Amino acid sequence: MLRALTLVLCLLPATAFARDWQVDAAKSSLTFRGSYQGESFDGRFRKFDATIAYDSADLAQSKFDVSIDLASADTASSERDDTLQGSDFFDTAKFPKARFVTESFAKGADGAVEAHGKLTIRDKSQPVVLKVTFAENGDAATLDVATTLKRADFGLGPGSDWADIGADVPVRGHLVLHAKQMPL
């Protein structure tokens, strides 16, 4: 009977599921680059969380859900960090988190994978496309993503008071992942 059941299960069509991954926060980073009065500066978010399910062979089953603690922005300048948390930028008192959720994945014209989704910062949600590089090695993987955001799309630094701040903000993520164990 067991042999017959095993045979039947093997003949059923397999349903593809993306593999679930856990982020190793200590080895992962989420960075950005800004500019003020023509001078570039680098920053990072010290706290973020991500739910990652990814299958490069079946992108339709993949998903990213990333939550970012905006008050954890660190640019190595307390004055700049305080400004970012203020009402003209992230307004972390009202909007403590940003969130990116994928809607779909596709192969780009150059053959690279793109994650299409919505990014919400403050009370503004905008479509965002991430370039995705995923490298799996057994139960470990790295996930690198990159995009460039338009700060005005999210109402960050509005008006002429902030004209000296660059309009484009390159964002990069490097996640070190470990496969989640499936419950028995």
Structural write-up:
With 184 residues, this protein is mainly beta. The protein is 10% helix and 51% strand. It has helices at 2-11, 78-85; strands spanning 19-23, 29-36, 39-45, 48-54, 63-69, 73-74, 97-107, 113-121, 124-137, 140-150, 168-179. Strands 1-4-5-7-8-9-10-11 form an eight-stranded antiparallel barrel. β7 (97-107) and β8 (113-121) form a beta hairpin. The longest helix is centred in the N-terminal third of the chain and has 10 residues, at 2-11.
Summarize the structure.
The protein has two helices and eleven strands. By secondary structure, the protein is mainly β.
Report on the biggest sheet: 8 strands, antiparallel, barrel
pLDDT averaged over residues? 90
Low-confidence blocks of residues: 4-15
> How much helix is in the residues?
under 10%
Backbone shape? globular
Keywords:
184 residues, eight-stranded antiparallel beta barrel, 2 helices, 10% helix, globular
